[in-house]
Amino acid sequence: MMQPTKKNLLSLMSANDGRETQSFCSGYLPHPNPRMYKYFWRVFAMDTPWESTEFFVRAPVLTTAHFMEMYGKCRADGVSCLIYSYHLPRHGSIFDQTSAKWEGVTFAPAWDDDQDAEWRGHK
Predict the structure, then answer these.
(1) What domain of life (predicted)?
(2) Does 93 reside within a domain?
(3) Which of 3, 7, 54, 113 is most buried, with most CB under 10 Å away?
């Protein structure tokens, strides 16, 4: 995983002939079934005040709808950024939460109980 640093972002921009770039550096793109997982996002840009580990501790965690709004704005404004995501399985999905595989795993709210804004079916 590429660390969220200004040096790394500048390096990607340089490799792109100085043009803006939005690079997905960790995580997964959303599963086609939004009821399976809840996704969380962080965006690192040149004006982000934190780098490396501190970024993951302090940077705001965005829901999918908020992330997509920010991502669209970055693309429209020509802002380069590094994108990091993670997901949690949802309550009420097909996962057997009694299985040893899921022991100690945090589950996100069931899709129907999730109060976050929706983007293309994802909350």
Answers:
(1) Bacteria
(2) yes
(3) 3
Judged by DSSP in three states, 113 sits in helix
50: containing domain: 6-10+19-112
Q: Is residue 52 part of a domain?
A: yes
38: β partners: 88
Asked if the model's pLDDT at residue 29 lies above 90, the reply is: no
% of the chain residues with pLDDT over 70: 100
Asked, for residue 120, whether it belongs to a domain, the answer is no
Can you give the pLDDT at residue 80? 96
Collect all residues with Cβ–Cβ distance below 8 Å to 98 and sequence separation of at least 6. Answer: none
Is 89 inside a domain boundary?
yes
Please, what's the b/e burial string for 73-112 (b: 16 or more CB within 10 A of its CB; e: otherwise)? Answer: ebeeeebbbbbbbebebbbbbebeeeeeeeeeeebbeebe
Check residue 19 and give its pLDDT. 85
